Amino acid sequence: MENHFEAGIENLRQQLLLMASHAEKLVNEAVQALMQRDHDLALRAKANDHMLDQFEIEIDELAIQLLTKAPLATNLRLVTVAMKISQNLERIGDEATKIAKRARDLSQEPPVKITLDLPRMAALALAMVKDALDSFVHRDSAAARTIIPRDKEVDALNKQIHAALVEHMVENPDTIARCLHWIVAAKSLERIADHAKNIAEEVVYLCEAQDIRHPAVKAV
Amino acid sequence: MAETLTPKLVPKEISAASAPTAAPFIEIEGVSLYYGASRALKNISVHLEEKVVTAFIGPSGCGKSTLLRCLNRMNDLIDGVRIEGSIKIGGHDIYAKDVDVIELRKRVGMVFQKSNPFPKSIYENVAYGLRLHGVKAKSDLDTRIEESLQQAALWEEVKDRLHSSALGLSGGQQQRLCIARAIAIKPEVILMDEPASALDPIATARIEDLILDLKKYFTIVIVTHNMQQAARISDHTAFFYIGELVEFASTTKIFTNPAQKRTEDYVSGRFG
């Protein structure tokens, strides 16, 4: 006799993994389009965002169906975590779409003559997304915990890039429109890293039943 | 009485709302119970707190009802039962030789799976125990009966037909009448053996709300097969398996992050 509930849990997990692989691909494409000034790739990436929206809705429906069956223990944590991870993946998709739009516009303009640490920031953010999703796949809370402090490095790079672009705009007012595109793209990468961190925190909760979000609040 | 006691199990990771403050009220130490040669409870040690709801869960035959019945010596009525270990309630050994079992059952009331009102009026059902314990004056009886029916959330439904037969009440009302009957004599502990398993969801919800109200005044121990019911109403949960106490912790911990694999498997519906 099939265990229908366990089959439902496995289906939820599979859908989430599928959504995660789409989100990761979307971020990779958007960043690649930005770095390589690839107009066509930017358009393709932008066109794929709706898939993540669809996944988010489907995963919520599956999770709500499972919640009506009152899962407990690990299953309960998995269902609640799945809803949160899918929301973070959907937001990652939104940020990737923003990057793709900026990549599309920037690819039509002359390059800005400034050296930014954006490739490093993008590599860090992408690695955080990949590692967070891997930690979910392998239910590896130790790996998930190592992702969390990496967010600070991305934040610092964003500030540095922001300052460099502001300075460049002051000195080269004709580049303001293009520099603003880069500021938005960098901010989106910073947000992607935030969402990767959120996913890692959810993985820790899934594995250890420890809520490690907002340590400052808990210390009060 | 067993001399060697297992380490005490106390709830772990209890939320602030239910953090233990008082000394344990029910102290079960090294309790084993035999039906003839068969050992139904194996060296159970657990401390239950006052004025909290503790749920006993576990698959059929795990010993949860047997342990519940030890708490007011209901098992004394079964031939061939032998009990080792000690159980104290409020510091008193309930198996001590000088214990008056009738007096004990006044302190430790019980509500069963199937409602069992006497074939008498609603009023007489509640008055019965009170009279048995010496309340004679009609005015006293009236007061205590109204108070008990109020506390059991039944007063509004029956106040105009107190002298009608209790057997005319619905299943849920009959069960609440049994709770009123149990609380009328002001016990310290109420034992409940699957009190809502024969009721529809609405009647069940009323019993559950009532249990949550009653824990302000009484220590409640409930046996239930319904995991969600245990999650909804209990503060602490004990999981039993084949006569052993596998895990005892705050209900939140048991249902979100049990420490033992057997508990995880049971609450997730993998066996039982």
Description:
The complex is a heterodimer of chains A (220) and B (272). The N and C termini of chain A lie far apart (51 Å). Chain A has helices spanning 4-36, 39-47, 49-68, 73-106, 118-137, 141-147, 150-171, 176-208, 215-219. Chain A has 220 residues and is mostly helical. In chain A, helix 1 (4-36) runs antiparallel to helix 3 (49-68). Chain A has one domain (4-219): Methane Monooxygenase Hydroxylase, Chain G, domain 1. In chain B, 33% of the residues lie in helices and 24% in strands. In chain B, helix 3 (122-132) runs parallel beside helix 6 (171-184), helix 4 crosses helix 6 and helix 6 (171-184) runs parallel beside helix 7 (201-214). The radius of gyration of chain B is 19 Å and the shape is globular. The two termini of chain B are 32 Å apart. Chain B has a domain at 22-119 and 182-267: P-loop containing nucleotide triphosphate hydrolases (Rossmann fold), CATH 3.40.50.300. In chain B, the strands form two sheets. Chain B has a six-stranded mixed beta sheet, sandwiched between helices. A four-stranded antiparallel beta sheet of chain B has the order 2-1-4-5, with helices on one face. Chain B has helices at residues 64-70, 101-107, 122-132, 138-151, 155-158, 171-184, 201-214, 227-233, 251-256, 261-267, and strands spanning 26-35, 38-48, 53-57, 81-89, 92-93, 108-111, 189-193, 219-223, 236-241, 244-250.
Secondary-structure topology with pairs:
The complex is a heterodimer of chains A (220) and B (272).
Chain A lengths: L3 H33 L2 H9 L1 H20 L4 H34 L11 H20 L3 H7 L2 H22 L4 H33 L6 H5 L1
Chain B lengths: L25 E10 L2 E11 L4 E5 L6 H7 L10 E9 L2 E2 L7 H7 E4 L10 H11 L5 H14 L3 H4 L12 H14 L4 E5 L7 H14 L4 E5 L3 H7 L2 E6 L2 E7 H6 L4 H7 L5
Parallel strand pairs in B: 3-8, 3-9, 6-7, 7-8
Antiparallel strand pairs in B: 1-2, 1-4, 4-5, 9-10
